[in-house]
Write a structure and sequence with these properties.
Length: about 60
């Protein structure tokens, strides 16, 4: 993901990902949640399409 699209927390966790993984040794589920947070907002990792029942406008989340 391009850096300008990341929020502050995504950038911090991306910058320190290896230190978190290899120095802190978090549980597998914690690393999975970090991965999800880092990739949040990236459509290549999936999402949901919502449509307004009134105007029909679609929004990908």
């Amino acid at each position: 993901m391009h850096n300008s699209l990341m929020n502050v927390l995504q950038q911090i966790f991306t910058d320190y990902y290896e230190e978190i993984e290899y120095i802190l040794h978090p549980r597998k589920t914690e690393m999975e949640n970090i991965d999800k947070m880092i990739h949040c907002g990236d459509p290549s990792f999936g999402g949901a399409m919502y449509g307004c029942p009134h105007c029909g406008k679609l929004k990908f989340i």
